[in-house]
Amino acid sequence: MPVVKLNIGGKVFQTTESTLKRFDGFFKTLLETSVPVTRDENDNYFIDRSSQHFEIILNYMRDGDVVLPDSDKSILEIQKEAQYYMLMGLVEICEKKIPKKVEKIMKSLENENQLLEVIANITDKPVLVVYYTFEECNFFKYPHDIRIKQFLATFADRFDIYFKCDSASMKINKNDEDDEDGGWSYRIYDTTNGWAQSGNFENVHKDLPCYYKGRYFKIKNYKKLFSKAK
After folding, report:
1. How large is the angle between the packed helices 88-97 and 72-84, nearest 10 degrees?
2. How far from the centroid of its chain's Cα atoms is residue 144's Cα?
3. Higher local confidence (pLDDT), 57 or 227
4. Which InterPro entries does the entry link to (predicted)?
5. Residue where a domain terminates, one of 76, 97, 118
6. Residue 150 and residue 135: Cα distance in Å, rounded?
7. Element (H or E) spanning 47, and its range?
8. CB 48 within 8 A of CB 6
9. Mean pLDDT of 165-175
């Protein structure tokens, strides 16, 4: 079985030709086609890449699987090398090992003190607090027809929106266990008239535009009265 020597960034590795041809990709193309190749002074194939993780690359080609290190940084480096060598199976293994980052799009309130701080700092923009619910064993109830990203995109320019875990005493529908909104509710806090409005979250797309329209005319009337008083 022919042995192939590879000079990876100045460090020489040895493996069999069959190992390098096992998977479609860089090395199989290198050995089976007439693509131009660079060789070092000892006639080894020279590849201008880092040798730091190449042993892992080789082990993957030998076994079809590999144990990755725990470091996310190292896994990302291995994934980058796997992409260069076109070893898509190893790329997928790396992707599964790296925890996916969850985009943070929601502002949350952990306790009543944080809620009071938010209310105390209201300026011109009313605060909308969405109360969500958990059941036993942390089972999460979610409104079936609400898309949070779309909801935020629609109303974030008019309301300062926060999410807070509900308690039994705060629910709008305490006795409705099968409500379609999952027990979610909302409250609006506004400097124009204090605690302004509350309701079931299933009605939020209908309620909020009406509230904001009413608020606009109320503020407009206040300004008219103030200007007349002058």
Report:
1. 160
2. 21
3. 57
4. BACURD1-3 (IPR045068), BTB/POZ_dom (IPR000210), SKP1/BTB/POZ_sf (IPR011333), T1-type_BTB (IPR003131)
5. 97
6. 25
7. strand 45-47
8. no
9. 53
For residue 47, pLDDT over 80 is answered with yes
Instruction: Give residue 131's identity as a one-letter amino acid code.
Output: Y
Asked, for residue 103, whether it belongs to a domain, the answer is no
Q: How far apart are CA 20 and CA 29, in angstroms?
A: 9
Residues 220 and 113 placed together within one structural domain of the fold? yes
> Whole-structure pTM over 0.90, yes or no?
no
Provide the residue count of the chain: 230
Q: What's the pLDDT at 92?
A: 93
Whether the Cβ atoms of residue 171 and residue 141 lie closer than 8 Å to each other: no
Indicate whether 163 and 223 sit together in one domain.
yes
Q: What percent of the chain has pLDDT over 90?
A: 40
Final residue in a domain of this structure, among 57, 73, 97:
97
Q: Are 122 and 190 in contact (CB under 8 A)?
A: yes
Residues 112 and 225 in one domain: yes
Choice among 33-37, 129-133, 136-140, 212-216 with the minimum mean pLDDT: 136-140
Q: Which amino acid is at 90?
A: L
Nearest-angstrom CA–CA distance, 179 and 202: 9
| Domain range enclosing 195 | 108-229
Q: Rounded CA gap, 75 and 109, in Å?
A: 35
In degrees, to the nearest 5, what angle opens at C-alpha 155 toward C-alphas 133 and 105?
60
* Pair 72, 99: CB distance under 8 Å: yes
- For range 171-184, the mean pLDDT: 54
Q: Which residue has the tokens 């290198």?
A: 30
